[in-house]
Amino acid sequence: MPLALSLPSTLRRALQAEAQRGAPNEVCGLLGGVQRGPLFQAACYMPVPNCAATPQMRFAMQPEAMVAAILALQRAGYAPIGVYHSHPHSAPVPSAVDIAEGAWQATPYLIIGYAATQPSLAAWLIEGRSFTHLALI
């Protein structure tokens, strides 16, 4: 069975709203939930400040806030099952920077893209220098 990311509609809408509020900068954070075999089930998300030098074109999670987000997820009974970030001016496809800096190997990346007026979401798995599309259910 291929890998998939389950993302409830309430979570999708909340992440899209966060991405819109953060534009023109990329927003980022962690997805919390559980993994059951090939299915990553997101139950919540934890925003983490983007501390990249050029936040309009890339994201870097602020380290202390990322640790705090992981601890908060664990206290809530969840694991960090994925990373999310936005592409305020492009499609939800991993950029060359995303792949080169893919620190969370073999972890779902949810990208909220704005290539058009309406946001679109896509999930990916980055492994090495390649990426695989994940089913988003």
From TrEMBL:
Gene3D superfamilies in the record: Cytidine Deaminase, domain 2
SUPFAM superfamilies for this protein: JAB1/MPN domain
Record-level GO BP terms: proteolysis
Residue intervals of the MPN domain: 4-137
Alphabetized GO MF terms: metalloexopeptidase activity; zinc ion binding
InterPro entries per UniProt: JAB_dom_prok (IPR028090), MPN (IPR037518), VirAsm_ModProt (IPR051929)
Keywords (A to Z) from UniProt: Hydrolase, Metal-binding, Metalloprotease, Protease, Zinc
Protein name from the UniProt record: MPN domain-containing protein
Species for this entry: Candidatus Thermofonsia Clade 1 bacterium
